[in-house]
Amino acid sequence: MPTVIALDVSLSMRRPVSSKTSHDGGEILTRHQLAVHGINQLLNYLQANSKLEFVSLLIFSSTYEVLCPFTRDYDMIRSRLQSIEERDKTCIERALHGINTVIMTEWGITTACQVILITDGSPGVGPMSLGYSLNNMMHKHNGQFPLPFPYPAKLNIVCIKAGSLTNELALYQRLIELAGGDSALLLPENDQLSKSAISDLFKRLAECNYVSFQGYLKCGNLGSKILLSPPPMSYTKKSDFHTISGLTLSKNLEICGFMSVTDVGSPNSISRHLILPLPTEKNFSTQGISLEDESDVEDSTSASDEGKSPSFCVLLHGALKVENMAALCLLNTNWYGFIYSWADTKKKSNLMLTVLEPGCDIVPWLGNFNNLSTHEIVEKSNIPGLEVLTFPLKPHEKRSYSQNAPSWIRQVGLQSDIQKILRHARKLPEKTQNFYK
C-alpha cells in the first residue's frame, strides 16, 4: 500500500547524539543522520521484499515540502535524502495536514496507506507545538485537526529519542490514539541511539507493516499459489449496536462461479488488490499445507514470470478478459469478492481482486449470493414453484422516487477530486492533456 515518509528537519534534529547513548565507535552522529540511516534501511527492505510499494518523501518543520512524489524508484528517494538542509522549529500538525494533502491528491480516501512520521520527540514550542494543537483541537472549526485520517491509514511515529517516560512522548501517544487502528509509537530499544539500534528499529517497523499476503486460489480442480498486492488489511465492521473487528481474508480463496461484468456493475468495495501468480508444485494440495509468509517473494515472482510452466492465473486472466466476465470468489465465511481483468493501458491488463464488505446480501441488484445458481442446475432440479430471476434484481419495495444508478461518493473524496481539476485548470495549457484522460 502507498507509504508516506515524513521526516522532521527542524533544528533539534541536528543535535549530536550523547556519547552515553551512542555506541558507534566514537563517531559523532546527529539525530538527522540516524533518521536518514533508518530510512535507507527501510528502503532496502522494500526493495528486497515489496517492490510494488509506492513511497513518497515529505520533510517538515513549521512548513512542509514534498521532496519526492509517490514512486517505486527508491534510488531517487535515497538521492533526495542526501541534500536536505535544516529548517526552523517543529510543527507536527502542519506535517499531518501535508500528509493528508499528499495522499488525498494522489489516492483519494478509499486507498489504505501507511504513514511513517520520523522525529526526535520534541513537541515544538509556542502556538505551533503539539501540546498547543491537542489542547485546542476541540475548538477548531469544520474538523480542521488532521486526525483521525479521512482515509484508512496506519500511523507509525518513530521517535529517535533516548528515554520513554517523558511528557513529550505522552503527547505523541495521544496522536496514536487519535489515529486509531494498529497505529504505534516506536522507540529504540535500551535507550540506545546508534546505527545498529536504529537499524533494528526500522527492521521491526518493516517486518510488522510490510508482510506479504500469500494464499491459494482455487477453482474446481485447478488452482495456484498467489500473492496479493497490496496485502489486505484486517477489516472492522461497525453497525448500530455492535462492532466486529479483526476480520481477515482466508489463505484459501475459492471461485464460486462467473457472471458478466455488466451484471456486476459497480458495487461498494473495501479494497482492490493485484493478483500475482507464484510457482505451484504439480502435487500441490491445500489440505494440511502451511501458507506462511516467505522472504523470497522476489525469487518466486521472477520464476513465475519466465512463462515456462502453465499457470492457472494466466488461464483465468485470459478467459475473464476475452469473455468480459468476473469471477465471484469466497474470501472467508460469508465474505465475497470479485476477480476480473483490469486494463492499465491499451496494451497491458492485470488480474485484480475487489474485496466487498462482509455479508451475503450486500449488492442489492445481485441479491443473496447463496441463492445464485446456473440455469442448467435449476432446470435439472424440477422444483415446483421455483422462480428464476435475472439481473438486475428489482427491489421488493417500490420506491416513490426514481432510482438512478448507484454512485459511492463521500464528501471528502468529491472535494479532493474537484480540487485536483481546479489545480490542472490553473496550469492550462500545459495540463490540457490531463482533461482527456
From TrEMBL:
Coiled-coil positions: none
UniProt keyword list: Nucleus
Protein name: Integrator complex subunit 14
Domain of life, per lineage: Eukaryota
Subcellular localization(s) per the UniProt record: Nucleus
Statement: the UniProt record of this protein carries the keyword Nucleus: yes
Pfam family, one: IntS14_b-barrel
Assigned protein family: Belongs to the Integrator subunit 14 family.
PANTHER family: INTEGRATOR COMPLEX SUBUNIT 14, PTHR13532
UniProt-listed GO biological process terms: snRNA 3'-end processing
GO CC terms of this entry: integrator complex
InterPro entries the record matches: INTS14, IntS14_b-barrel, IntS14_C, VWF_A, vWFA_dom_sf
Domain VWFA: 2-205
Lineage: Eukaryota, Metazoa, Ecdysozoa, Arthropoda, Hexapoda
Claim: Nucleus is one of the keywords in the record: yes
